[in-house]
Amino acid sequence: MTWRPPPTSIASQVCRKWKEGVQHALKFRIKLSFSGLRVDDDCVAGLVEGAYSLRELDISTSRWGCHITDAGLKRISLAMCCPNLTSISLWGVTAITDAGVVDLVSKATSLQHLNIGGTFITDISIIAISKCCQRLKILNLWGCRHVTGNGLLALTNGCPNLLSINVWGLRIPLDSYSCLLSINPRLHLKIGSVQLGPHWQAVH
């Protein structure tokens, strides 16, 4: 008579093989999106740590929200893929602070697109970005009301490849933006549906 493993043993083998398959697929994942999902630090960081080829990470929130904190950003910053990330969205992740963002951008030095709109970051994060992310091209600061003109000045000087910044909702006088455009003639500043380009030409 042929011996057959008990059902629990079969289930265990299936689960193990399924887990191994997921881990193998995760290694080659280029994009990961948790947008709108109820996720936490352990969930996101655990998957990012196994995604060795990851280039684009989206943790933006929706009406359901998520609970990502500085601890989660710290773990992501230590992941093998972090130095190769080209795009990160932290849109509306209000539990993060400058400490977490600084940890992340100090390691994510290949960033070209960064969305930290709808958060409470300050010039501390902006200055860290200016020092660590020279390849940055597109930055969303929508509603980041604690960012000042001094932070944007440091950003424009430190990130020569910047092409676009969403500055809607920032408490900065409109005239202050002229200095940024004089430093980087290619830069466009998005304020709602209007873009301010070189020589203050409005592009709709």
TrEMBL record:
Transmembrane segments: none
Protein name as catalogued: F-box/LRR-repeat protein 15-like leucin rich repeat domain-containing protein
Keyword Ribonucleoprotein: no
Keywords attached to this entry: Ubl conjugation pathway
Gene3D superfamilies the UniProt entry points to: Ribonuclease Inhibitor
Domain F-box/LRR-repeat protein 15-like leucin rich repeat: 76-157
Alphabetical list of Pfam families matching this protein: DUF7885
Record carries keyword Transcription: no
GO cellular component: cytoplasm
